[in-house]
Amino acid sequence: MTAFSIPGLSTNDTEKAVAILQKRLSAYNDLHLTLKHVHWNVVGKSFIAVHEMIDPQVELVRGYADAVAERIAAMGASPRGRAGDVVADRDWDDYSLLRDTTDAHLAALNKVYDGLIASSRGAIAALGDLDPVSEDLLIGQTGELEKFQWFVRAHLEDESGAIAGQSEHTETGAAAQAR
User: Fold this and answer.
1) 66-113, pLDDT tens digit by residue?
2) Spatial distance between the Cα atoms of 98 and 101, rounded to a whole number of angstroms
3) What pTM value is reported for the model?
4) Are 123 and 23 in contact (CB under 8 A)?
5) Where is the Ferritin/DPS domain (predicted)?
């Protein structure tokens, strides 16, 4: 329920846009926690490269969560950022790897980004007719997420262009194939 709506947006469209943005907020909160978890638990020959590559992404994604939450608030709604809200909004599995190799974590993260980017693109499409301002916000964020997935894939790519774990459909399957 919104207290007010943005001028030019109906209450109904505002509430639809807020619901879409709330799912992105929960996804971003989950992602920055997952990235920090990987940062703490990655080991192996490329440890320092991966360890240091992840922290800037954590900060970027935290900023995305903040921007989305502020958009929700500007639309007259209350952004929900508690741990229980993330769990309630989840339509994905919790990240399951603990201490593991850089290749295993990156292959699993590649799957995380597959799902996150696909759902972000769905949100962008849904917002297109509702609220182009929110759509624009997500377009910029998704472009940066796609760039970071490219960084992850570059670590996993071999000389023939194959990406370790790419043919798998789950994080654990991708991690096992990449080990």
Assistant:
1) 999 999 999 999 999 999 999 999 988 899 999 999 999 999 999 999
2) 10
3) 0.94
4) yes
5) 19-158
